[in-house]
Each structure stands twice: as structure tokens, then as C-alpha cells.
Amino acid sequence: MSGLSPDTPRPTGVVVHAKSRVLELQYAGGEHYRVPFELLRIYSPSAEVRGHGPGQETLQTGKRDVTIVSIEGVGNYALQPTFSDGHSTGIYSWDLLYELATRQDALWREYLDKLAAAGVDRDTPMNAPGAPQGHCH
């Protein structure tokens, strides 16, 4: 999901829609996508979410109402948002953003399947009893 491909489209515009909680990505040729902040947050490329190796991912819950409080460019290859829950370590490369934008339906299904398998609800707070716990220390 990460890494940089020279073929990956680079957004020509990025709009943070605070009220509807979506990040709009505009591309040359008129293509545009609206990616919910929640999807961005639960698929953060950070070690805090992804872990440091296979099987170390931390299932994210309670992120339905998360917002982006600020967003910064990282070089010419990525964006780094700061979310309202304090998470700010995910660096979203153009190819990751494009994948999140174009594969939203499949990614939502995958996420909901993981929640069901873990026996937790999408809105369970991260630190609640029975909620998935992180592996990073």
C-alpha cells in the first residue's frame, strides 16, 4: 500500500471538508474522490497503527467522528494530517492516498470484517475494556 510509484497520479487539489469530514482529492482530467477522515485514520500508515511487522497491526475503533485539525505537505510526495484524536504520525504518500480513494468500498468491507472477527464495534473507544490493544511500546 505504501511506496512511491512514478505512475501514481498526484492530486492537483486537496480540500479538507471539516463539516462532512471528508478529504477531497482532485486529479488532472477531472477525477476527484471524497475520502472520509475515518477511513484515512483507520488505515494510517503509521507504526502506531500498522505495527513494526506483519501481524502487529492495531485495529482502530471509535474513529467515526474524528476530524482533521491540520494537514501539511511532506516534500513533493505525501501529506501528513493531524487528527482530532491527537494522531499525527501517519505520512500518506500519493499512492497510498490514491489507493484509499479508489478502493474505499473494499477497504470498508475489510475493516468491518476485521471488527466482526475481533468481536468489537466500530464505535468502541480504543481504550475501553475488550477493545483491541496496541502492540507498540
Report on the structure:
This protein is an alpha+beta fold and 137 residues long. The protein has a single domain, classed as NE0471 N-terminal domain-like (2-Layer Sandwich). 25% of the residues lie in helices and 22% in strands. It is built from four helices and six strands; from the N terminus they run βββααβββαα. The chain has helices spanning 37-42, 47-50, 94-102, 104-118; strands at 13-17, 22-26, 32-36, 68-74, 78-83, 92-93. The strands form two sheets. It has a three-stranded antiparallel sheet with strand order 1-2-3. It has a three-stranded antiparallel sheet with strand order 4-5-6. β4 and β5 (78-83) form a beta hairpin. It is globular and about 40 Å long. The model is unreliable at 133-137 (pLDDT under 50).
How would you concisely characterize the structure shown here?
25% of the residues lie in helices and 22% in strands. The protein is an alpha+beta fold and 137 residues long.
